[in-house]
Specification:
single chain; Chitobiase, domain 2; about 500 residues; 19 strands; binds acetamide
Length: about 500
């Protein structure tokens, strides 16, 4: 019999010889109330059973401090299931594992007799959603939080501003949403989150043990800022690249003061030598710091092709300092590693390829030299908006062509940037850019199943350190999750790379 399927692969999973635990409507769930409510909801979604107690079989959910952060253990035998978390997050992850272990056995529901001991490899396991190229509603974002939390992700990075729109209300700069939020790529409608919406997203994320990492991309990707505060931005730089993109993908060239709904990047810049720019940066991140309980504020810093390199360096050193002075840890895309005066301990987010090109790894390494850590988002593996080799007509292909599930899986975090080790890696994040992604169903089909590969890179033991960390094991385990995902309403892409189990 094959091992029970858990994704991301746990640190240790041992199958016992005894009879399985049988779950029924009379099973009693006892212990921590939040975890009990999460489990009851998961059981109902998966099985249709409303568990009410009254029988002899018991599931016990407990917190016993002392273990590693976010760790848990789970023991199932014929009489009981016991899940113990080192903290509330660990217990929540144990509940997610239990949800995956619940299997149909003819007319019954069982949990195989197992012992799981589990803790994450990396502290930061993120997903990113670009709500700027296409706006996504609070409901969609909450749904994505639920989906990601089920795979033990603990951070939602929201890309809140780009050339095509500004998506967060700020009282310090009200014109951003009044004048720059109404449009999106392809002439689609825009939108924005009120401060109450943002608070609702943060509270929902917290209930799933996730932080929110807000990104305001600067000094490039700022065309929308110019719709609201034209005095802060330079004229669009119409390079050959911009003209080529406009030709290949259609759409107009960017024009100062007019909404941009195309897909080109790298034409906009804040004014670097004007103090009004830094007043703006201070207002935006100052207000954001007050609205965001998590420790990170992301200032973008990618693809600033319309900004001279020395100006870029000056800007990111000042912007990271503004964020650090607010008591938050700045995060920037890897290009910012080129700045000699980057604020100490800034976190770098690497978005180059699994095999680095063009010195991107050199820039990433600079964050580590500067006392910071790295978040790894290799674009040709875990950019979830890349097209599948066969599948829906969604997504882009610039990251080394289409990305299969096997491509998404077949990389090892410690092997990308030479000269760094696990202590230099804060974690792993799977971004979803939204040039072609318009609906919740688009998000589902592009994320699932590839998001599970990112989850495993972030949570599970290193490649080679566990028998479970192989493509063959992964594809079998993911296939076993098909019925659970379906019962949770997740419209995954039923790619032929995965041996999907059906019930
Ligand atoms: C990026 O993909 N421009 C971070």
């Amino acid at each position: 019999m094959s091992l029970p399927s858990v994704v991301p692969a746990p640190a240790s999973l041992e199958q016992a010889t005894g009879a399985p635990f049988r779950l029924s409507a009379t099973t009693r769930i006892e212990g921590e109330t939040d975890a009990a409510a999460s489990l009851a909801a998961l059981v109902t979604a998966r099985t249709g059973l409303e568990v009410e107690g009254g029988g002899a079989s018991t599931i016990t959910l407990a917190i016993e401090p002392g273990g590693a952060a976010e760790s848990y253990s789970l023991t199932a035998d014929e009489a009981s299931v016991v899940v113990t978390g080192a903290d509330a997050a660990g217990l929540f992850y144990g509940v997610q594992t239990l949800g995956q272990l619940l299997t149909r056995d003819d007319d019954a529901w069982i949990v195989p007799a197992v012992t799981v001991e589990d803790s994450p490899r990396f502290a930061y396991r993120g997903v990113m959603l670009d709500v700027a190229r296409h706006f996504h509603s609070v409901e969609t974002v909450k749904g994505y939080i639920d989906r990601a939390a089920g795979l033990k992700f603990n951070a939602l990075h929201l890309h809140l501003a780009d050339d095509q729109g500004w998506r967060l209300q700020l009282h310090s700069r009200p014109k951003l949403t009044e004048l720059a939020s109404g449009t999106a790529v392809g002439g689609d409608p825009g939108g924005f989150y009120t401060k109450a919406d943002y608070a609702e997203i943060i509270a929902h994320a917290a209930s799933r043990h996730m932080i929110v990492v807000p990104e305001i991309d600067m000094p490039g990707h700022t065309h929308a800022v110019g719709l609201a505060y034209p005095e802060l931005v330079e004229e669009p730089v119409l390079s050959d690249h911009i003209i080529e993109i406009a030709r290949d993908y259609g759409g107009d060239l960017p024009e100062a003061g007019k909404p941009y709904d195309g897909m080109a990047v790298g034409f906009s810049s804040l004014k670097i030598h004007d103090e009004a720019t830094y007043d703006f940066v201070a207002d935006v991140f100052g207000e954001l710091a007050g609205m965001t309980p998590g420790p990170y504020l992301h200032l973008g810093g990618d693809e600033a092709l319309g900004t001279a390199p020395e100006d870029f360096a000056l800007f990111v050193s000042r912007a990271t300092e503004i964020i650090a002075d607010l008591g938050k840890t700045p995060v920037a895309w890897h290009e910012a590693g080129a700045a000699p005066d980057l604020t100490e301990a800034t976190v770098g987010q690497y978005w180059g390829f699994v095999t680095p090109t063009d010195g991107m790894d050199v820039k990433a390494r600079e964050f580590v030299r500067n006392g910071g850590q790295l978040i790894l988002s290799p674009a040709d593996a875990i950019y979830l908006d890349m097209k599948y080799p066969t599948g829906p007509d969604l997504g882009l292909t610039w990251a080394n062509g289409p990305t299969s599930v096997e491509d998404a899986y077949s990389w090892e975090p410690s092997a990308i940037i030479r000269g760094i080790d696990d202590t230099d890696i804060l974690g792993v994040e799977a971004p979803m850019w939204s040039e072609t992604i318009r609906t919740a169903s688009d998000i589902d089909t592009m994320a699932f199943p590839r998001i599970a590969a990112a989850a495993e890179a972030g949570w599970s033991p290193a490649t080679g350190a566990s028998d479970l960390r192989t493509w063959e094991s992964f594809r079998t385990r993911v296939g076993a999750l098909g019925p659970l995902w379906t019962s949770l309403g997740i419209g995954f892409h039923p790619t032929g790379e995965i041996p999907w189990v059906t019930e």
